[in-house]
């Protein structure tokens, strides 16, 4: 198996393999170029070209490689390109202050943009797995019931014939974890690359433990496709999918300087024809130089280059990118989602609690200025949105197996419409928890049961009859159609709940799980 992976890594082309010593204190920058060589062939495999043709996606300049002449000129000037991005028409490099000035004067350079080396990676799960044999603890089990996983199993949907790219931190012990042994036994890992230590073979990630976060990718992979045959426990939905793995995050340093690793990884996966990506990473604010950190106002879907790359992947490459929303919900200095979850075209996944299906405290919320809903959906996770996103990635893989001809945007819409609060979403949990039964009906163009009800209140108080066996239910009090003022739990008394309008409250969403009631106040 190791020989197979190593041989495949050698055969596959990569956008630059220069070693990038992680201990080098020299600041890292993006160097953006003005143009590309006209007529250059696209840097895509035959599989990727076929996928584009099937999806009727145009081959354009973003598919052509960075100009070799520009790279030669930089090298001659003493600059060593690290990652190359054909999408952004840029390379990353470590530059001294003097080199920045010289590079800015080069005629083919459009801009030089710093990559802050002191930024928090926001979406890692709260605690690592205790051992490689149990990468996901039993607390993940409730989410399988919540999303109706048995419905997919009954339909024979296991992610078979679907290829998934995972961009994450380390994958320590992945090849020996009981939940992942079936994947390795059938050679389901096609290739693995380390973009942090570029001089290391990717398979060394199974043995390299630089920090406890090096378990993170292993946990994520298990949440997508884990199936422990010895214990007869299934952790993920996409048990028969195949995978490309990439490490873009160093983990123990938690710095934004690895955004270029993420861009390189997703472009590599695109070049191979991968359509579905899980990335349980996010970038928020820094720890040492506030002037260079992201601001909450910059979580707008287009300020960060990583979000611009993610949006480009969604719009022009037909890729469905599923991203963890972030774990800053209880951080009063931030609270909102991180980038690239802010990009409109990605599917951002928040986290719910198990009992009420409302937002669990740590789950990041959507920024109010955004003209679109974030997060898109949510599901239960005890250990962070890092483990809710892969659950939905497995959900998406099952849909792709059933209807491979659907576009990324059609799949995203089905996942949203299958969620239990649709169409009354909010910036706490999006449209809520995707349900397999609803998604399967939507795939078959069958009518979905009408579980949403709109009620117009006539005064400041309303009494609603509800059909539920629960003694209390979740309520979202909103200032408008999507923005939550607060969430609360209200009691059910004699088959009814009583609501009194709050100050500035325009709408209230009552979540009965099997039904959603939207109250519009006068």
Quickly describe the structure.
This protein has 522 residues and is α/β, with parallel strands linked by helices. The chain contains 13 helices and 22 strands.
Describe what this molecule looks like in 3D:
This protein has 522 residues and is α/β, with parallel strands linked by helices. The protein has two domains: 1-282 and 299-449, Peptidase S8/S53 domain (Rossmann fold, 3-Layer(aba) Sandwich), CATH 3.40.50.200; 452-520, Immunoglobulin-like. 23% of the residues lie in helices and 21% in strands. It has 13 helices and 22 strands. α8 runs parallel beside α11. The termini are far apart.
Strand neighbour order, sheet with most strands: 7-10-6-11-13-14-15
CATH topology description of the largest domain: Rossmann fold
Main sheet specs: 7 strands, parallel
Low-confidence stretches: 1-22, 117-121, 123-140
Tag the structure with descriptive keywords.
single chain, 522 residues, alpha/beta, Rossmann fold, Immunoglobulin-like, 2 domains, seven-stranded parallel β-sheet, five-stranded mixed β-sheet, 23% helix, serine-type endopeptidase activity, serine protease, Peptidase_S8_Ser-AS, hydrolase, Peptidase_S8_subtilisin-like
Write the layout of secondary structure elements.
Elements: H1 2-11, E1 28-33, H2 46-54, H3 68-76, E2 84-85, E3 90-94, H4 97-104, E4 109-115, E5 119-121, H5 141-146, H6 149-154, E6 163-168, H7 181-185, E7 189-194, H8 216-225, E8 227-228, E9 233-234, E10 242-247, H9 259-271, E11 276-279, E12 283-286, H10 305-316, E13 320-324, E14 347-352, E15 377-380, H11 389-402, H12 408-417, H13 436-443, E16 452-456, E17 461-465, E18 472-478, E19 484-491, E20 496-500, E21 507-511, E22 516-520
Helix pairs in contact: 8-11, 9-10
């Amino acid at each position: 198996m190791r020989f197979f992976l190593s041989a495949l890594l050698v055969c596959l082309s990569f956008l630059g393999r220069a070693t990038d010593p992680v201990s080098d204190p020299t600041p890292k920058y993006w160097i953006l170029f003005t143009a590309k060589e006209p007529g250059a062939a696209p840097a895509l495999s035959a599989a990727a070209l076929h996928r584009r043709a099937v999806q009727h996606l145009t081959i354009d300049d973003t598919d052509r490689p960075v100009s070799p002449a520009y790279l030669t000129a930089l090298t001659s000037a003493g600059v060593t390109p690290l990652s190359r991005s054909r999408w952004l028409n840029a390379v990353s490099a470590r530059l001294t202050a003097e080199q920045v000035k010289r590079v800015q004067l080069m005629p083919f350079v459009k801009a030089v943009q710093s990559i802050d080396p002191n930024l928090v990676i926001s979406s890692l799960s709260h605690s690592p797995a205790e051992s490689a044999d149990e990468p996901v603890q039993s607390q993940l089990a409730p989410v399988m019931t919540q999303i109706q996983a048995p419905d997919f199993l009954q339909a024979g949907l296991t992610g078979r014939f679907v290829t998934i790219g995972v961009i994450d931190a380390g994958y320590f012990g992945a090849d020996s974890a009981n939940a992942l042994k079936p994947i390795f036994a059938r050679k389901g890992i096609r290739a693995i690359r380390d973009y942090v230590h570029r001089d290391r073979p990717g398979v060394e990630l199974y043995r390299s433990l630089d920090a406890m976060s090096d378990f993170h990718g292993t946990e994520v992979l298990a949440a997508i496709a884990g199936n422990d045959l010895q214990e007869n426990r299934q952790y993920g939905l996409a048990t028969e999918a195949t995978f490309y793995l990439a490490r873009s995050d160093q983990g123990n340093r938690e710095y934004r300087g690895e955004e270029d690793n993420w861009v390189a990884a997703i472009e590599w996966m695109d070049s191979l024809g991968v359509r579905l990506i899980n990335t349980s990473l996010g970038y928020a604010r820094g720890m040492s130089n506030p002037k260079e950190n992201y601001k909450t106002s910059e979580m707008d879907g287009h300020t960060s280059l990583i979000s611009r790359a993610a949006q480009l992947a969604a719009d022009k490459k037909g890729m469905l990118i599923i991203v963890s929303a972030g774990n800053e919900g209880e951080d009063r200095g931030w609270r909102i989602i991180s980038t690239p979850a802010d990009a409109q075209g990605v599917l951002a996944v928040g986290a719910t609690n198990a009992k009420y299906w409302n937002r669990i405290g740590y789950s990041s919320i959507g920024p109010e200025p955004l003209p679109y809903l974030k997060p898109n959906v949510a599901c239960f996770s005890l250990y962070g949105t890092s483990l809710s996103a892969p659950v939905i990635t497995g959900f998406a893989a099952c849909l792709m197996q059933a209807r491979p001809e659907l576009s990324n945007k059609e799949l995203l819409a089905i996942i949203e419409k299958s969620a239990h609060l649709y169409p009354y979403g909010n910036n706490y949990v999006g449209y809520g928890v995707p349900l397999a039964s609803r998604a399967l009906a939507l795939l078959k163009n069958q009518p979905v049961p009408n579980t949403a009800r709109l009620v117009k209140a006539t005064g400041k108080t309303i009494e609603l009859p509800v059909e539920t066996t629960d003694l209390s239910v979740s309520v979202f009090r909103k200032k408008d159609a999507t923005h939550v003022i607060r969430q609360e739990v209200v009691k059910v008394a004699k088959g009814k709940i009583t609501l009194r309008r709050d100050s500035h409250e325009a709408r209230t969403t009552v979540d009965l799980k099997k039904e959603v009631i939207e109250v519009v106040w006068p």
